[in-house]
Write a structure and sequence with these properties.
274 residues, alpha+beta, 13 strands, disordered C terminus, binds zinc ion
């Protein structure tokens, strides 16, 4: 594992902290639901080298290594976090409608501040991507850092939101929180590395591509965002319940799209970890 001794954002070596891989508010949102508490479920992390029962949202197992200082991970990014949380609070409250209409109007979430808050939302995503890159031994681009610092528009990252109804289908009792594999592409022409990856919160995936100047489009003046939709018909007739989840466990674990992806699920309290 990468043992970075300084903050990848500002270079400070003091008070380094570990950012959550999936936002803690998501764990809180699901973990604290009384129905899950009553079922006696625990967070469960699956990964290449085994699975771990996680005791709760503060566990180090769901955090990146400590490579962000407490200033960058604190007040410098507080507004990013707030904007991200507003988006997902709205998403959870309106999930059925959004899945049907495949659009989100940022005005409904952020009202007349939608332009600046949407930039803050993207800054949260770029911060997450940067953590993912540094975790794997790479670095965010200068443009990504400049974007976080408010100096530049975002040029080097393309962010796409994709609805995944099959994930919703898979999650009647068990909302998935997952991070996909970080893919590395070698651009032979430009002699640069490019990256792609995703994370999924319930039925919504945040997918990204990191490539120099991929995002040259000027900022949209339209608050209506069209969402992509990816579905898998093999799940369409499936009902996963707490009674049959154990039969599905192996399929869910296989269903990871890559060796270093991570899924966080609620599983039965007494289920054995492997
Ligand atoms: Zn810092």
């Amino acid at each position: 594992m990468q043992t970075t001794q300084k903050c990848w954002w500002c270079g400070s070596t003091k008070n380094l902290t570990g950012e959550h891989k999936i936002k803690k508010t998501h764990f809180d949102y699901f973990y604290n639901k009384s129905e899950y508490k009553e079922l006696g479920l625990k967070l469960f992390k699956s990964r290449e080298d085994g699975s771990i029962i996680i005791q709760g949202p503060k566990s180090d197992f769901i955090k990146f290594p400590k490579f962000l200082c407490n200033v960058c991970n604190g007040h410098k990014s507080k507004l990013f976090d707030d904007s991200y949380d507003m988006f997902f609070t709205y998403y959870f409250d309106n999930e059925i409608k959004i899945l049907a209409e495949k659009t989100v109007d940022l005005c409904d979430i952020y009202q007349n501040q939608w332009e600046e808050k949407w930039i803050l939302f993207k800054k949260y995503i770029v911060k997450h991507i940067s953590c993912r890159l540094v975790e794997k031994g790479f670095k965010p681009t200068h443009n990504m850092i400049n974007f976080l610092n408010g100096i530049d528009d975002l040029f080097d990252v393309k962010i796409v939101l994709t609805l995944k109804p099959y994930a919703e289908q898979l999650t009647l009792n068990f909302p998935p929180l997952s991070i996909g594999r970080l893919f590395t592409h070698e651009n032979m022409i430009k002699n640069e590395l490019e990256f792609s990856g995703w994370f999924t919160i319930k039925s919504l995936s945040v997918e990204y591509l990191v490539q120099k100047n991929i995002n040259q489009k000027s900022i949209s003046s339209n608050s209506l965002i069209k969402l992509n939709k990816t579905d898998y018909s093999s799940f369409s007739s499936v009902s996963i319940t707490k009674e049959n989840i154990i039969n599905w466990q192996y399929i869910l674990e296989d269903y990871q799209f890559g060796s270093d992806s991570m899924w966080f699920h609620y599983y039965m309290r007494n289920m054995k970890s492997v």
